[in-house]
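DM from R.C. (forwarded with permission)

"hey, sorry to bug you on a friday — could you get me a structure for this? deadline for the figure draft is monday and I only need the backbone to look sensible"
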Amino acid sequence: MITIHNFQNGARGVRIAWLCEEMGLAYEPVVHTFPTSTEYRSKYPLGSVPFVEVPAHGVSMGESVAIMLHLAMAYGPTSLAPQEPAARSLMLEVAVMSEASLGGWLNLLLTDRYAAPPDQKGGWLTGMAQAQVRRLLDHLATRKGDSPYLSGREFTLADIAVATSLAMWEHALSGAIPESLVPWLGTVRSRPGYAKARNAFA
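My reply, with the result:
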C-alpha cells in the first residue's frame, strides 16, 4: 500500500493520487495540517508535502514529480510514461517544467499572497513571477499545438503534472488560463481518476 501524505486539497499530493488512480495502484491518503507536526517531520525532516511511503519496496520520498516518475517506473510499463524516445523526452521536459520552472514561480506567488507581511506584498519580484508563469503557459500552449495532450497523442503524467499546477494558478492565485489550453484542461480534468484523487484529499 502506498501512503500519500498531503495537505487538504493540496494540488501536488492530488497529482500523486491521480497517477495512482490512472495506474490502478492502491493508496492511503493521509491529510496533515500546516505547519506539519513533529511526528511527521521525524518521517520527512523538510516537513513539506507530498511525501510517500511504500513499505513493500522500502521506499520513502518527497518531491511530487520525482514520486510520479518513480511510481511509473516501479509499477510500469505504463502509457503514462511513454518509451518512444520523442514522446518520452517531451513528457520528461514538460513534467519537470511543471515544478522546476512553473512550480518555482508559483511557490513565490503563493508565499507572497499568503505569508508575506502586508507591507511587503506585491513587489517587483511578484510582478516578474506572474509574467514568467504567463510566459511558461504560452510556451506550453505553443508546444502542444494541435496535439490532444501535452506530450502528443497520448495522455501522460506530464498532463497530470501541469493540470495540477494550474489548479494552484487558478484557484489559489486567481490566474487566467490561455484560451488555447482550456479545452485540453477540461478534457484531462474530466477523467474519473482526477475526481477520485481530489476527493481523497477534500
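R.C.: lifesaver. The domain at 85-191 is CATH 1.20.1050.10 (Glutathione S-transferase Yfyf (Class Pi); Chain A, domain 2).
me: no worries. The chain is about 55% helix and 10% strand.
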